[in-house]
Amino acid sequence: IEHYGYATNNAGWVRRDQPVVLWSPDSEKIATFQHDGRFVGEMYLVSTQVGHSELEAWKYPLPGDEHIFMMRRVVIHVDEARVVDLLVPPDPHRSTISDHVASRDGQWLDVEWSDDSSLLAFVSSSRNHKGARLKLADPETGEVRNVLTETVETFFESGRGRINWHALHETNEAIWFSQRDDWGHLYLYDLETGDLKHQITTGDWTVLQLLRIDKVNRTLYFTGAGREPGDPYFHYLYRIGMDGTNLELLTPEPAHHAITFSVAGDYFVDNYSTPTVPAITILRAADGEHLLTIEEMDISRLEEAGWQPPIPFTVKARDNVTDLYGLMYQPTNLNTAGSYPIVNYLYPGPQTGSVGSRSFRASRSDKQALAELGFIVVEVDAMGSPGRSKSFHDTYYGNMGDNGLPDQIAMIKELARRHTWMDLNRVGIWGHSGGGYASTDAILRYPDFYKVAVSGAGNHDNRNYEDDWGEKWQGLLETNPDGTTNYDNQANQLLAENLTGKLLLGHGTMDSNVPPSNTLLLVDALIAANKDFDLVMFPNRRHGFGREPYWMRRRWDYFVRHLLGAEPPKGYKLGTVAGR
Fold first, then answer.
1. What is the C-alpha to C-alpha distance for residues 453 and 365, in angstroms, rounded to an integer?
2. Would you say 48 and 106 are in contact if contact means Cβ atoms under 8 Å apart?
3. Does residue 139 form part of some domain?
């Protein structure tokens, strides 16, 4: 049946051919789903070429659509060529950690088999992401029973980049992740009754990823953040008993730790670093004992070439209470007696923040290169981004037009008070995708503060972006009797009349992630408001044109011309340096 195939993650902006299945441990059964997109609306793009253009059409649901992708869960018995329907209503195409139901490596999320292949555990998420239900299915009969349900006021997540719930069939228990006390923690449930046995981890810090379960010794190994002094975005490895006792820090170095366990779990490789300290890779025993230094990164050639790391900083958020953490990039020839315009990079999330990993990187895109042109470049993880408390992440739920901008402005003002060479009268901003949306929002919502914005591939009105995104962070679309909606507060085109600064927009004409209609809606409103702006459309480009040399050069030129007040070299061609 057309648009009702099996095992596909083709939904909205994600289109992959890899089948989404989960083999049973005995290799006799496959858990998967029939993907119902028969009544889902389509999105259209048109190629640019000599002669007749080619029309690209695919299923792409939007917030408020009556019909979205639905999953009819099944188990396929391979030897018998038998399909067993799980006896539950179809689930919305949702997971507890991602836009979609499979991870980037194709793994089906929120589904796991028992070791003996006799039971299938899965989590059903509600369309609005507020509800999650852990269920157990009999793969022979299709019978399903509900184990536990969690409902929240905003959105439920089961971890950071990894599913943290697990069914422990041998002991008839389940490990569950929840932020019910404002922090992400692990809980132990009775798998039969659904009753809470006890909370495993506690405190004003968050569990990130449950990496290993030692069932014999009833010990959990997991990464966490915010418990140790210093940067709350540093990841550390811990272990704890399932009874909630004997919490141990296994990686004490104050740094960001990336962990890889051996198959048996007796050892793990710990790669740790900070934005300013290069990586050290060591082998540890399961108890954290340092057994062997495998490698130490050598950056001497970088330093000889004049490289300098970004400068970490801490500032107060909009509430003047909460600490925010970011990075600053300065010209290597900084003159503290001078005056420098400021360029604010941002990606608002809400699924991630601007800074990204706190591990060491020789280059964080072109931020240092931009600083060398005569700017102070800054980025900070604002309120509304993940990795800390639930209330921190929930800051602007239902008001995506906030974009963390009050925190960005508070950050820049505080840094300028510390550093007199930062010029608050010359502030620019840029970003791509969600950052393209937020940077345009910034110059329209705060025109007296932001004077220049460069915005690539922005989802300027999330009613024109895929359903799962807006409905998770903004809520289900609601229309009021007067025709206004609960999405009006996030629509950039409704702010077009506020433009007073310099705005450069860019979009790919074949962007199948954020369709170009998002930018064209804004362009139409700017024209109607008689506003001057600049626009670059990239023919036949998808979503990833942001790192193309032409767009990078145009962005640099824009800031040099309108913040530095200088004329950039005409048609400068970015490329590699000879001999490098």
1. 18
2. no
3. no
- How many Cα neighbours within 13 Å face the side chain of 195? 3
Q: For 81-129, what is each residue's pLDDT tens digit?
A: 899 999 999 999 999 998 789 888 888 999 999 999 999 999 999 999 9
* Unique residue bearing structure tokens 């389940």: 174
Residue 413 lies in a domain: yes
* Enclosing domain of residue 469: 314-564
Query: What are the structure tokens assigned to 427, written together?
Result: 């502030």
Query: Model pTM greater than 0.90?
Result: yes
Please name every residue paired with 430 in a beta bridge, in sequence order, or none if there are none.
Answer: 345, 454
Instruction: Count how many domains the chain has.
Output: 1
DSSP element (H, E) containing 526: helix 517-528
Give the residue among 554, 397, 536, 374 at the shortest CA–CA distance from 472.
Answer: 397
- Residue 495 within a domain: yes
Cα 69 to Cα 60: distance, rounded to the nearest angstrom: 9
Residue 407 identity (one-letter amino acid): D
The DSSP output letter for 562 is I
Strands in 446-528 per DSSP E: 452-456, 502-508
Q: What's phi and psi for 146, nearest 5 deg? A: -85, 130
- Using alpha carbons, list the distances in angstroms from residue 191 to 171, 179, 346, 417: 9, 20, 43, 56
- DSSP lists the bridge partners of residue 123 as 134
Tell me how far CA of residue 404 lies from CA of 233, 297, 441, 502, in angstroms. Answer: 17, 35, 11, 21
Pairing of strands 502-508, 452-456: parallel
Nearest C-alpha neighbor of 221 from the set 259, 173, 187 = 259
Nearest to 139 by CA among 95, 81, 83: 83
Residues forming a β-bridge with 248: 239
- Take residue 548 and report the two structure tokens written for it: 């193309």
What residues does 187 pair with on adjacent strands?
176, 199
Q: What is the pLDDT of residues 93-103, one digit of tens each?
A: 999 998 789 88
Torsion sign over Cα 393, 399, 405, 411: negative
Evaluate whether residue 384 is within a structural domain.
yes
Please name which of 550, 494, 500, 542 lies closest in space to residue 522, comparing C-alpha atoms: 494
Residue 437 belongs to domain with CATH number:
3.40.50.1820
Identify the DSSP state of 545: G
Q: Is the separation of the CB atoms in 88 and 124 below 8 Å?
A: yes
